[in-house]
Design goal:
Layout (H helix, E strand, L loop, with lengths): L7 H10 L3 H5 L3 H5 L2 H7 L7 E5 L5 H8 L3 E6 L2 H10 L4 E4 L12 E7 L8 H10 L1 E11 L6 H12 L21 H10 L3 E14 L1 H9 L3 H8 L3 H15 L9 E13 L6
Parallel strand pairs: 1-2, 1-4, 2-3, 4-5
Antiparallel strand pairs: 5-7, 6-7
Helix pairs in contact: 4-5, 8-12
């Protein structure tokens, strides 16, 4: 296994998620859980299959795969996520591991999935190559990412920060231009092909995410995601201003039951592993 250097983006992402599993579980985890079944279907996961859930988070995908009878290894770089994954997916083997340097032998799994993980690594192509490395020839790899332009649920936070007059910091790490890729169907498909995967398919899935307004606020308020990174840099007066704009701009999405109904979308890509070295 080739060791890949950690990028500044990787270090930043790990610092962002350190100790935040509970905050994620109480806010954005339900949003990210929606494609779990479709992701496992795209990877062809069934009873008896050896599955790697890379970047398993709180264990939602791993638990669903276990319920299908798969033999699941759930891996994540963040210890607080692993603790929740052990509780949510007690039948899975839970391992501390970080893309793109996984501690598994070539061809260890029948399939590998990564649910909204590729958008959190410093070298997406290297991460996909590593997923392909640990899957047997003929096995499958499936991933989800958020698209760009952002769907309404995610774009709403941009609107709120703009309305509150929040300036975007210039020092946030970004992917190196030569490692980035278009967050479109074609962009994800080309990335997977470039990583050596074959029979690539990429689709857009769309749904309406229903959530309590306080849960949607509490994610960024507790440092989750890019909105959370911005929120943490603000003084209390600015946070109050953001909250007022939040209440104003989410009002149009509130149903009669008081929940938010937020249109959103994701990209789901899947492919086969074709390799003659095992």
């Amino acid at each position: 296994m080739e060791t890949v250097s950690t990028t500044a983006f990787d270090e930043y992402e790990r610092s962002q998620w350190a100790g935040r599993a509970a905050a994620y579980q109480g806010s954005f985890a339900a949003l990210c859980a929606h494609p779990a079944g479709m992701l496992l279907d795209a990877a062809g996961v069934g009873a008896g299959d050896r599955l790697l859930d890379a970047g398993a988070g709180t264990g939602t995908v791993a638990a669903l795969a276990c319920s299908r009878g798969a033999v699941v290894t759930a891996a994540d770089a963040e210890p607080s996520m692993l603790a929740l994954a052990r509780r949510q997916a007690p039948a899975a083997e839970v391992r501390h591991a970080t893309l793109p340097d996984l501690p598994f032998a070539v061809g260890s799994f029948d399939a590998a999935v990564a649910n909204f993980v590729i958008n959190h690594v410093g070298d997406p192509a290297a991460a996909l190559r590593e997923l392909g490395r640990v899957v047997r020839p003929g096995g499958r790899v499936a991933v989800t990412i958020w698209p760009y332009p952002a769907p309404p649920a995610q774009q709403l936070w941009v609107t709120i920060f703009d309305a509150a007059g929040v300036e975007r910091p210039a020092d946030l790490p970004r992917l190196a231009p030569d490692l980035d890729f278009p967050r479109t169907r074609d962009g994800l498909a080309d990335l997977m092909r470039g990583a050596g995967l074959t029979g690539v398919n990429c689709d857009t899935i769309a749904w309406t995410h229903r959530t309590d307004p306080e849960s949607w606020w509490n994610g960024p308020a507790n440092g989750i995601g890019t909105p959370g990174a911005l929120m943490r840099r603000q003084d209390p007066r600015t946070v109050d201003r953001i909250r007022r704009q939040y209440d104003r701009h989410t009002a149009a999405y509130r149903d009669s039951d008081g929940l938010l109904a937020l249109p959103t979308a994701a990209l789901i890509g899947s492919a086969s592993v074709s390799r003659e070295d095992v």
